[in-house]
Amino acid sequence: MTTEPTARSLPRESLGDTHLRRLIVGQGLAAVVDALFLIWLTLFVLKLSEPGMTTGFVLVAVALPRAALLLPAGVLVDRVGPARIAAGAAWLRVAVLLALGALITLTSPSVATVALLAGLLGAADAAYFPAALALLPAVVPTEKLARVNALVQGAESGGDLVGPAVAAGVIAVVGFDATLGGIAALAALAAVALSMPIRAVRRGERVGDAAGPDEVDGERVSTARALGAGLRYAWREPVVRGMLAAIALINITVVGPVLVGGAVLADQRLGGAGSLGIVLSGFGAGSLAGSLVAGWRPPARRGWTVVGGVAAIGAGMAGLAAVTDVVAATAVVSLIGLGSAFLGVVVVATLQERVPERLLGRVLSLVVLATVAFDPFSYLLAGVLVPFGTRTLFLVCGGAVLACAGLVATSPAIRSLR
């Protein structure tokens, strides 16, 4: 069974370029806010307590609600509409950031209080991510989806690249309070921009959807049944199933090994732990380049592009086993970043075009889940393999990704993608 491209019911042409620009600006600013706040939060918790478990506890407080609520949030996106969920989640972020700002300005907050508010931001992220991805096809003409996804992911990569240095520098100059105020202001601008297209999108929803997305004989099914419908669709469709499996495997075999194994590699072969920052900046630069290239020249044969992107990541991981200096390591990690970002743009744009609108929020929530939920397993894998040496770590992980590329290439549904 193959999925044919699905015509969207929303009158995208009537939304105009103004709404499109606002959407790109809003999602780009939201990505920058995420990058800046993560660094702010890490440094602020380090100020409150000694380095160690406390910092991990707060970061887990962000990650757990985000991962746990992603799939229910996908159902909510399909039922309520991506425009309203994206705008509501954006404003919830603003409210939490303002509350956190007032708390640290007026009191001396405990780590537990900071973790609680950080958890609310994680919940907002769970709703925002699938809604933002599902909103794009409602506003963006199909032929522009790859380009707009590239711009949004490019903003995210740019935030990851410069965010740590900018956040740390601003904190050093003006302090934690003022820096958080600036982040909240950027979040408010993002929320305003994301709220602008909501009326036009809602008009399109009323025109295009006479029946709800989860109604049987006029009655709405339960959230569990609605979620089950999304999971069954993702499993039965070869394109969706293959892409989700590739994303999950790449996340498991890349994130932890690059961070954990990269730190060991830097200490043993690259001249010291300080070189790790240079290498990781190469990943950010490669990601930015990959996003922009994917938008500038969308591939004509998407299926083979997906195979090539997975293979490039695998080759880069295996290549890390042989590097002996910072320049080579940075170049190889840049290749991994470029392949990851290029692949991300192609995969997301393909799913946005092909998945039925009534299931889009649920399927895209699975995509987000595949990119964030497996980090603990990735760190565990790195911890198990590091004692055998970094060469073994990178060869095993690179080989697994290359094997995944071979399996993806055996799928006729993916090979035939245009």
Automatic annotation (TrEMBL):
Report membrane topology.
Multi-pass membrane protein
Q: Where do transmembrane segments lie in this chain?
A: 24-45, 57-77, 83-104, 166-194, 242-266, 272-296, 303-323, 329-351, 363-386, 392-414
User: Which InterPro entries does UniProt cross-reference here?
Assistant: MFS (IPR011701), MFS_dom (IPR020846), MFS_trans_sf (IPR036259)
Statement: the UniProt record of this protein carries the keyword Cell membrane = yes
Q: Which cellular compartments is it found in? A: Cell membrane
- Record-annotated Major facilitator superfamily (MFS) profile domain positions: 14-415
| Main location class | membrane
Q: What residue ranges carry the coiled-coil annotation?
A: none
Q: Which Pfam families match?
A: MFS_1
Alphabetic keyword roster = Cell membrane, Membrane, Transmembrane, Transmembrane helix
**Organism superkingdom:** Bacteria
Full protein name = Major facilitator superfamily (MFS) profile domain-containing protein
Upper classification of the source organism reads: Bacteria, Bacillati, Actinomycetota, Actinomycetes, Kitasatosporales
